[in-house]
Structures are given as structure tokens and as C-alpha cells.
């Protein structure tokens, strides 16, 4: 069921009432069908609607802050422009930093907004605020984008968890991203490209004995559930089912094809982007691929001289692969940080945090390829076009995924909550 | 040895600067800027006076070298352009210019001892040798696997060495155009996450040419790079490491430049987290002592070092204090301001003699 958007960019109270009634009704129906029981959250029927569309998200998170001046918005030969040249791209008149030659060659497949202007200039506040779409304060902790998509669109048919986070460092289940949606919508983190531990059946069990064990477990769980609210056992079931699904898909963690490694780069980001592609191919709804180490307060330029080519290689490879497989028709790809970096160059030859004027790139389903929007001034210090905050992007991405962001709400224990900042609207120029 | 220096005066331009060098006669102070030009300061006036800039460059002009005997300045920029100018002219026109001496960031220039040729290096991993008088390419030397950060020429015999981002130092056989020997300064390099961190930042030969000294950091992490600044000495004869000196803590980070004082001791400058910078004098004869014979710790982010031909004044390129900060910092009129690079001119700190003493 899809609600029609209003012609007015702001919601009216009537629309909210209708919306709430509809959604509460949907939730009741979902519960009757055995699909809900999640504290009144609206997701089940929207998820049904989305299922047929098979929309997915590959979210590339450049943690620490990629410099827009050494990447998407170069200002060569200006006071703050740094040492690098700019190079032409496949879109006439659009230039990128010389550190991104591969991306430049596929620019016509991307959309870029150089007019991003956000508010938080610290990691501790900026990372969660950006990842949650900077919603208005309604007394709840909003979910990260991955958890939101997992909830609104469901896991799909893959049998795999809906939100997978591929990252350097430790793996595990990261429930914190889910906010008020509850732990079930957290991220299954794949750390260092390693399969989660214990997904191989111990050698002393064959399929028959394993089935017997499972039958016993199900019996015990049934007894347990019968005397407690369903939410108690839901998260436990979810984790178990996830483990079972991963046991069936162990090949996702097989050694990669050397030719793929060469194309993606033999780096942590190349490795993780390749795993991310495999997860998307396997049907995971939302895959976050994470790169750390971009907080270049010191030695920014030598840093970006090695960081950017590795991003450039992995990013281009995954976009090209998805494109060649026809998957950009249903996969939304986003590349972003929590902010950009200061135009001013400090004494450690670094750039500090700069939310005032930076860039976000995207492509894939629902996105207008080749859209180049947003502008900064000659020095790269301020946005001169209409500034876009993260709330605008959440609206845009939800719409790209087929979710009417202005009229869809979460229902949290009876409280209707907008899924994106209700002062913001979708950026129509980015939408196909 | 009892020697002290103190800041005397600090000329500054409206742009950040690299590598301030004295002219061979000591009358000018010359530095490349962060925005495509070269700044000159006349030191013969009562206060240093900025002259008109030398233009024609792009990006950063990090690499400059002053001819040992003539009024020739060679400069290279981060887009790969190499130029020669008579720096004494009021509005210098280039003597010669090569638009693409390197493909990208040209990092360092060194003259031969007689000034007949010069060597350059850069991001394209190549070392090139040009004739000074006309800019004609003489040699192209390939053997590095990373950006080449520094070139240096041995005073005794014009031997050419180059050092790269991975800490490899190559002594070149210029006749065969191939590496002759290597020195291992990989201690200055760390692969951290996606980032290559460190590499050799500077090099100098000892006065007797028997030791090659390199400066850099022992990196701890990338991103906001931290590491212990170090100077490493290598025997020229054996290529073995003979000297290692830590020049601070992890927040001091890089040894950015090295020079020898006419009195024979080694001078080093460091630059670390914003506001952190040191100048220190090291007596290489006292290798058992970790303490410098003199240290100034109140300089902010020292990036280069040069000694005036009079053997007394020292120029240290620094960055203005308060250079960092997240988010918008604007002046009263709402203008977003850049940083500047005061060139600290230091003079011997000699106690004033009482009158009639």
C-alpha cells in the first residue's frame, strides 16, 4: 500500500490523521497475519509493498571526513585549494580532483551534490546525527539509515539479515544503530572480512542430528514463548535465524577471485567493498561498507594522496560491477562522510572538520544519473546554491527507494513519528 | 658548547609559505607559497620588506633552491612546473620554464655543488636532472616505487641521493641511470588502514660527507598523523645506520628539516599538532647524550630551516598560532581567513655587555 504524496511540501494535520489511522490499521492486519507484533511499527505491509521492487542500498561510509577539496569539489590554484590539480570527467564542465581518475571516467553514472551544509562539526555529535538524518527532537533515539531501511522495507527474500555492516575491526551484532526500532533492526557487522565465528556446523553433527537438535530447540522455545510477551524471544529468534541463514551461505565468505581483488584494490576498503557487492548480490537489503582513517587534521595532503586512489579504485569497481549486472536499477549507492574538511590549512598541514560546505555522491535506483547540483564559492568556503542538510537527503533516498518520506511514519508505542526531518523535503533534481 | 638563539623578527606574507631560503649573498629571503607564487623579502632594509612576488606557478610551490653562487632561483610547483628566475630583478621573468617537468607534485630541488646542474623529484616517482643554464633534461632516473620526497647532493663528490614516501633512499649511478645502492629508512613509514604515513621528509650530508642524515617520523597512526620525530644517520661508506635520535614525543610528529650550523652541530626543526614546533641543536660528537645542546620550544609548527651566509642568523618557517579549529572561524566582518607563515629570523642570544666593560 502506497500513500499518495500531497502537492503541498508540508504535511497537514488531516493527512497525519489519515496516515496514522491507515498505519495503525496496517499494523493490526500485519499482526493478524503473523507479520508484525513489533510494538506497533509500521513496517510489515510497507515491506510487502517494497518486496516486489527488490530495492537495496549500498551505503559507503567514509568515517572521519573526506576532504571535498581533494575529491568532489576541487578548487585548484586558490588560497585553500591545496596542491592537487583537477581533471575533467565524463561530464563536460565537471572536474574532480586528480586523485579520482577512475571516478571521473564514470561521472555520467553518478549524481553529485556539492551544496551540502550540515551543522555538527564534531565526530561524537556529527556521526549519529548524520546517520539518523538529523530528525527533530521527539524524545526518542531515531534509527540509523540502515536500520530505518531494514524496518521500512524488511529483509526481502534472501533469508539474510536486512542490515549488514562490512567494516575493519571487530564484527558482531551492533544493535545500537536501531534506536527506538529495537535491537532486531541493528546491524550484523562483518569485521575484517571474516565470517562470523561458528557458522560452520561442528564436525560431530550431520544434517539428521542437527535437525533433531533444532526440533528440540523449537520445542523449548515454544514453551518459553507461551508464557512471555513475544518481544522477549523475537531478538533471540532473529539472531538464531540469521546464523542459520549465514550457515547456508558460507560461500559469501570464500576467498575472493584474484581478478576482483586486482580491480577493487588489495586494501581493506577494496576487500570490504567486494564483500559488500557479494552481500548485495545475495540480496541483503542494506549493506554499509565502512572505511576508517579519514580524519586528516595532520598531513591531509599526503594522506589523501594515498587514501583517495584507494577509494577511487574500490568505489569505481563496485559501481561498474553493479551497472554491468543491471543492478543499479534496484540498488541505491551512496558515498559520504559525516562532514567535509576545512578550507583553512592548519600548521600540521591538515584540514579540520567542516560541515558548512561539502559534497555527497550517489547513484542507482531512483537517482538521476549525471545530475550535478549544488555549488560552493570560488574559495570553496561556503555554499552559494540552496544548501542541503542531511534531512533533505534522507527524504531523497527514501523516495528513491519508493518510500513516500513525507507521508510515511513510524508508530512507536502509539506515537507517530516522521521517518525524515519534517522541515526538509526531497531534492527533486537528484531524483530520476 | 654554550650557544643560544632567540627570535628576532618574523616577516610574513598574506599566504602560507614553504621552505624560506636565504639568497647566496644573504640580502633576500625567498619562500614558495601555497598559492602559485614565490614571495621575497628584502633583508637590507631596517625591517624586512616584501618585494613583488614571482608568479607563473600553480598550486603549491614547495620546492625551491637557490644557486650557490649566482642570482638564480629554481622553483617547482605541485602541478609539475619547473622554472628558473633571476631573483634580484624587480619583476623577474623566467630564464626558462618547463610546464611538465614532472607529472604532478614536484617536491624537492637540489643543486650540484658548482651549480651546473640540478636534480628534482616528485609524485611521478622519478628523479630528473636538468642543466641549470637552459633547463635541458640530462638524466631521468627511475627506481622508486612511491612518491619521491627529497633529493640531496653530496658535498664531496656530487653524488645524488633521493628518498621516498616508503623510506627508501637511493644513491644513483648517473652514468648508468640506475640505483647504485640503497639506504633503509623504512622506519619512517607506516601503512595504516588505507593510508601511507610518513616517509623521508628531509636529508642532509654531514660536513665531511661521511654521514647521510635523514629526517622524518616514526609513525604511530594515520589520519591525524602522530609519531615520534626522528633523525637517522647512515654511514656513507657502508650504508649502515650509525645514528638515531628521537626529537620529541608523538605530538611533535615530523622532523621537517635538517641543517648544519657553521659551528658544526646539527640543527633540526619539528612540526606536530597545531602550535607544536621545536628547533633543536644536536652535537653529533656526543651520541651518548639524548639531550640537545639547545632547544627552542615556543615556535609554532616549524617546517623549514636555513642558515644565513653570515653564519649567524637562522630562518625557520612556521605557521601562525591558532591555525586550527573545526567549523567556521570568521573575522568581525564575516570573512573566512586563512593562515599565514611567519618566518622566524633567529639570532644568537648573547648577553648584553654592560657599558664600559
Could you please describe the fold and organization of this structure?
The complex is a heterodimer of chains A (432) and B (357). Chain A has 432 residues and is α/β, with parallel strands linked by helices. The longest helix of chain A is centred in the last third of the chain and has 25 residues, at 300-324. In chain A, the strands form 4 sheets. Chain A has a 9-stranded mixed beta sheet with strand order 6-7-5-8-1-9-12-4-13, with helices on both faces. Chain A has a two-stranded antiparallel ribbon with strand order 2-3. Chain A is globular, with a radius of gyration of 22 Å. Chain A is built from 11 helices and 15 strands. The two termini of chain A are 22 Å apart. With 357 residues, chain B is mainly β. Chain B is built from no helices and 30 strands. In chain B, strands 1-30-29-28 form a 4-stranded antiparallel beta sheet, with no helix packed on it. Chain B is globular. The model of chain B has no long low-confidence stretch (mean pLDDT 96). The chains are: A alpha/beta (432), B mainly beta (357).
Features:
heterodimer; A: 432 residues; alpha/beta; 3 domains; nine-stranded mixed β-sheet; two-stranded antiparallel ribbon; 11 helices; 34% helix; disordered N terminus; B: 357 residues; four-stranded antiparallel β-sheet; 47% strand
Helix content percent band of chain B: under 10%
- Give the C-level CATH assignment of the largest domain in chain A: Alpha Beta
Low-confidence parts of chain A:
1-40
**Assigned CATH architecture of the largest domain in chain A:** 3-Layer(aba) Sandwich
Strand order of the largest sheet of chain A: 6-7-5-8-1-9-12-4-13
Order of helices and strands of chain B: EEEEEEEEEEEEEEEEEEEEEEEEEEEEEE
Low-confidence stretches of chain B: none
Largest interface: A-B, 51 and 53 residues
Secondary-structure content class of chain A: alpha/beta
Question: Roughly what is the average pLDDT of chain A, rounded to an integer?
Answer: 87
Strand content of chain A: 15-25%
Distance between the termini of chain A: 22 Å
What is Rg of chain B? 20 Å
Query: What is the count of structural domains of chain A?
Result: 3
What is the oligomer described by this structure?
Answer: heterodimer
Which term fits the overall shape of chain B?
Answer: globular
**Continuous helix count of chain B:** 0
**Count of beta strands of chain A:** 15
**Straight-line N-to-C gap of chain B:** 24 Å
Q: Rough shape of chain A?
A: globular
Radius of gyration of chain A: 22 Å
Amino acid at each position: 500500500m502506497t500513500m499518495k504524496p500531497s502537492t503541498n511540501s508540508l504535511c497537514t494535520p488531516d493527512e497525519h490523521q489519515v496516515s496514522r489511522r491507515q498505519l495503525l490499521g496496517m499494523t493490526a492486519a500485519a499482526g493478524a497475519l503473523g507479520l508484525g507484533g513489533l510494538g506497533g511499527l509500521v513496517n510489515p505491509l510497507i515491506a510487502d509493498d517494497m518486496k516486489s521492487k527488490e530495492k537495496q542500498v549500498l551505503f559507503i561510509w567514509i568515517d572521519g571526513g573526506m576532504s571535498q577539496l581533494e575529491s568532489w569539489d576541487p578548487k585548484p590554484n586558490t588560497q585553500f585549494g591545496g596542491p592537487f590539480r583537477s581533471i575533467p570527467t565524463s561530464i563536460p564542465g565537471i572536474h574532480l580532483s586528480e586523485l579520482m581518475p577512475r571516478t571521473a571516467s564514470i561521472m555520467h553514472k553518478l549524481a553529485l551534490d556539492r551544496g551540502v551544509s550540515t551543522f555538527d562539526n564534531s565526530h561524537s555529535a556529527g556521526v549519529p546525527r548524520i546517520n539518523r538524518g538529523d530528525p527533530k527532537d521527539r524524545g526518542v533515539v531515531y534509527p540509523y539509515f540502515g536500520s530505518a531501511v531494514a524496518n521500512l522495507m524488511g529483509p526481502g527474500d534472501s533469508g539474510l539479515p536486512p542490515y549488514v555492516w562490512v567494516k575493519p575491526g571487530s564484527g558482531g551484532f551492533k544493535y545500537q544503530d536501531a534506536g527506538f526500532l529495537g535491537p532486531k533492526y541493528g546491524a550484523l557487522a562483518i569485521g575484517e572480512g571474516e565470517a562470523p565465528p561458528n557458522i560452520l556446523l561442528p564436525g560431530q553433527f550431520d544434517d539428521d542430528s542437527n535437525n533433531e537438535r533444532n526440533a528440540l530447540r523449537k520445542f523449548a522455545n515454544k514453551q518459553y514463548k507461551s508464557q512471555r510477551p513475544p518481544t522477549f524471544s523475537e531478538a533471540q529468534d532473529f539472531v538464531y535465524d540469521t546464523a542459520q541463514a549465514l550457515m547456508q551461505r558460507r560461500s559469501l565468505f570464500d576467498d575472493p577471485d584474484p581478478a576482483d581483488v586486482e580491480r577493487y584494490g588489495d586494501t581493506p576498503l577494496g576487500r570490504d567493498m567486494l564483500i559488500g557487492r557479494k552481500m548485495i548480490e545475495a540480496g541483503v537489503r542494506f549493506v554499509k561498507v565502512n572505511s576508517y582513517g579519514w580524519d586528516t587534521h595532520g598531513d591531509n595532503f599526503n594522506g589523501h594522496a594515498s587514501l583517495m586512489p584507494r577509494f577511487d579504485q574500490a568505489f569505481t569497481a563496485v559501481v561498474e560491477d553493479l551497472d554491468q549486472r543491471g543492478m543499479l536499477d534496484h540498488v541505491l549507492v551512496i558515498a559520504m562522510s559525516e562532514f567535509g574538511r576545512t578550507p583553512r590549512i592548519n600548521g600540521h598541514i591538515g584540514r579540520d572538520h567542516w560541515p558548512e560546505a561539502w559534497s555527497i555522491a550517489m547513484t542507482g535506483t531512483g537517482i538521476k544519473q549525471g545530475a550535478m547540483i549544488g555549488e560552493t564559492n570560488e574559495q570553496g568556503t561556503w555554499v552559494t546554491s540552496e544548501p542541503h542538510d542531511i534531512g533533505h537527503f534522507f527524504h531523497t533516498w527514501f523516495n528513491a527507494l519508493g518510500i513516500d518520506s513525507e507521508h510515511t511514519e513510524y508508530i512507536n508505542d502509539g506515537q507517530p513519528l516522521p521517518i525524515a526531518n519534517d522541515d526538509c523535503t526531497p531534492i527533486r533534481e537528484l531524483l530520476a | 658548547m654554550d650557544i643560544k638563539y632567540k627570535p628576532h623578527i618574523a616577516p610574513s606574507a598574506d599566504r602560507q609559505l614553504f621552505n624560506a631560503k636565504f639568497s647566496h649573498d644573504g640580502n633576500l629571503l625567498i619562500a614558495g607559497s601555497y598559492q602559485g607564487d614565490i614571495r621575497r623579502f628584502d633583508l637590507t632594509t631596517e625591517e624586512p620588506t616584501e618585494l613583488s612576488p614571482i608568479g607563473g606557478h600553480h598550486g603549491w610551490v614547495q620546492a625551491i633552491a637557490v644557486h650557490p653562487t649566482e642570482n638564480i632561483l629554481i622553483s617547482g610547483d605541485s602541478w609539475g612546473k619547473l622554472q628558473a628566475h633571476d631573483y634580484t630583478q624587480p619583476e623577474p621573468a623566467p630564464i626558462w620554464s618547463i610546464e611538465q617537468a614532472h607529472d604532478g607534485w614536484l617536491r624537492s630541488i637540489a643543486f650540484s655543488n658548482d651549480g651546473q646542474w640540478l636534480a628534482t623529484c616528485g609524485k611521478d616517482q622519478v628523479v630528473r636532472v636538468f642543466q641549470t643554464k637552459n633547463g635541458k633534461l640530462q638524466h631521468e632516473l627511475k627506481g622508486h616505487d612511491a612518491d619521491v620526497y627529497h633529493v640531496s647532493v653530496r658535498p664531496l663528490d656530487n653524488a645524488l641521493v633521493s628518498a621516498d614516501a616508503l623510506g627508501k633512499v637511493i644513491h644513483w649511478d648517473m652514468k648508468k641511470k640506475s640505483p647504485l645502492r640503497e639506504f633503509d629508512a623504512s622506519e619512517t613509514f607506516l601503512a595504516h588502514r588505507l593510508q601511507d604515513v610518513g616517509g623521508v621528509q628531509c636529508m642532509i650530508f654531514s660536513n665531511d660527507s661521511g654521514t647521510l642524515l635523514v629526517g622524518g617520523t616514526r609513525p604511530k597512526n594515520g589520519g591525524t598523523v602522530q609519531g615520534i620525530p626522528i633523525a637517522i644517520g647512515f654511514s656513507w661508506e657502508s650504508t649502515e645506520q650509525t645514528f638515531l635520535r628521537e626529537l620529541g614525543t608523538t605530538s611533535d610528529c615530523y622532523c621537517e628539516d635538517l641543517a648544519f650550523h657553521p659551528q658544526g652541530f646539527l640543527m633540526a626543526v619539528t612540526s606536530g599538532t597545531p602550535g607544536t614546533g621545536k628547533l633543536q641543536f644536536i652535537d653529533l660528537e656526543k651520541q651518548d647524550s639524548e639531550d640537545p645542546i639547545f632547544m627552542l620550544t615556543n615556535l609554532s609548527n616549524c617546517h623549514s630551516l636555513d642558515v644565513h651566509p653570515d653564519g649567524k642568523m637562522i630562518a625557520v618557517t612556521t605557521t601562525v598560532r591558532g591555525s586550527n579549529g573545526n567549523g567556521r572561524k570568521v573575522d568581525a566582518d564575516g570573512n573566512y581567513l586563512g593562515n599565514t607563515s611567519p618566518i622566524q629570523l633567529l639570532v644568537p642570544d648573547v648577553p648584553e655587555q654592560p657599558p664600559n666593560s
